[in-house]
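Subject: sequence -> structure tokens, single chain

Hey, anyone have a minute? Need the predicted structure for the following. Not urgent.
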Amino acid sequence: MDFKFTVNRTIQLEETSSTQDVAKELAPLCKEDGILIITKKQTAGRGRFERVWESKEGGLYFSLILRPNAKTMPLDLLSIKAGRAVAQTLKDLYNIKSKIKLPNDVLAFDGKEYKKISGILIETSAQADGGLDWIALGIGIDTNNTPSKKLNAASVKQLTKKQADNQELLQKFLQNFAK
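Reply:
Had a minute. Here:
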């Protein structure tokens, strides 16, 4: 990947339909790289194929607007790198064993089985020459929320029996992702 990553601007929202919606509206209007959009709650969070992503208050939900410097960007590699950064962050802060489920999930081990703890969504806009104008990288991490019983999912709080600090988790993720 041929781009450097830093957060240049942060947009903090109490509630939104989806941070990806905000990113997709904002990206064509400004040429700034490294915009972070974060919210406490999403009313219409989604994953790939428009699957619903439960986004109850307490979780960590954010999108990054990235502007690649290269003509092409291996998006599958970006998803893997983001997943690795999530997994490393969970290990660093909470000693949670996790693994990536390709192409866009992070699963955490609860002592018996792996359960979904994070999802990644990448949406893009292409230029006329085939390069990418922008990338919206959306990430949801179940931290202090309680995922629905019907989902094979877990949260940091459920696994550690402690309240997670979403701001600390976000900052550690951003550091790991920048590496």
